[in-house]
Design brief:
Layout lengths: L1 E7 L2 E7 L5 E7 L9 E5 L2 E5 L4 H7 L4 H4 L12 E5 L2 E5 L7 H11 L9 H20 L3 E2 L4
Antiparallel strand pairs: 1-2, 1-8, 2-3, 4-5, 5-6, 6-7
Length: about 150
């Protein structure tokens, strides 16, 4: 994997060249506060965008909870759904139902020895290796070659 990272002001841009040749570009900015899509994934078959943040935070601020909402917790309203675009075609795509509390339930079960951990430790370790390589890329202002894990 090749990693190039550039930090600027409150933002960043990172380019990842994966072992199979696929190139991923990731960027973000801490001060983004616009109507533009907050999340965007582009690929050879089209582009998927989502505006705004996860609705669970808004629900919590409104006094709702997984307990009060039951099966409806984590389901996003139609207005929050993302858009898939391919050329002139544009269609709404429902967001997957989210439930961040599920992570903590799985973690509790794992700690009690009754199930697997919610995140494979090797995946977590690989993530830290990539983040460290991005930090090194920014410090050295060069692309970093990361050996296969």
């Amino acid at each position: 994997m090749r990693i190039g990272f550039v930090g600027y002001g409150h933002g960043f841009f990172v380019s990842l060249t994966h072992a199979n040749g696929v190139v991923s570009h990731l960027g973000g900015h801490a001060l983004q506060n616009s109507q533009a899509p907050r999340f965007r994934v582009s690929g050879t078959l089209g582009c998927y965008t989502v505006e705004g943040l996860d609705g669970q935070e808004e629900s919590l601020m409104a006094g709702k909870s997984p307990k009060s909402e039951g099966e409806h917790w984590g389901a996003e309203e139609h207005r929050r759904w993302g858009w898939f675009e391919q050329g002139p075609e544009r269609e709404r795509v429902p967001l997957e139902k989210g439930c961040w509390t599920q992570f903590y339930r799985q973690l509790q079960t794992a700690v009690q020895g009754q199930g697997p951990v919610p995140v494979d430790p090797l995946d977590a370790l690989e993530t830290t290796r990539i983040l460290d390589a991005a930090r090194l890329s920014a410090e050295r202002q060069q692309v970093i070659e990361l050996a296969t894990f």
